[in-house]
Design brief:
With about 120 residues, the chain is of the alpha/beta class. It contains 4 helices and 6 strands; from the N terminus they run E-E-H-E-H-E-H-E-H-E. Helix content is about 35%, strand content about 25%.
Length: about 120
């Protein structure tokens, strides 16, 4: 079968485009199960990308520590404490989640040779 054209590194063939495209699947690990950004990005990846993006989602408590990062193209960190009144006594927990946890996940991604680490926050 002849290649009709190339689009962004994908070979598009004559005939049924969906069945005959050679597409590289992008695997993303989302840390932030239960959060607004993580859950909605996972739904987007599942429903709106025609299978080009595959997303797995893990929680930010213990699940991420035992998860193997090596097969992923990117880690999307979407866990955090936001949009809640902070007291001085909450400051330590706030930094533990929003700074220290993000750093720990990024270090694991780096050790696992994940090419991209994306930190998202809904905190304005």
């Amino acid at each position: 079968m002849k290649i009709q054209r190339e689009e962004r590194g994908r070979r598009i063939f004559n005939g049924d485009l969906c069945a005959q495209r050679m597409v590289k699947i992008v695997k993303i690990l989302i840390v932030g199960k239960g959060g607004f950004i993580g859950e909605n990005f996972a739904l987007f990846a599942k429903n709106k990308t025609n299978g080009v993006v595959s997303a797995d989602i893990v929680d930010s408590f213990d699940e991420w520590t035992s998860h193997n990062f090596e097969d992923y193209s990117a880690v999307l960190f979407a866990a955090g404490i936001a949009h809640r009144k902070q007291k001085k006594s909450d400051k330590q927990q706030y930094f533990a989640v929003n700074r220290d946890l993000a750093l720990a996940v990024a270090e694991k991604a780096k050790k696992s040779r994940v090419p991209h680490f994306i930190y998202l926050s809904s905190l304005a």
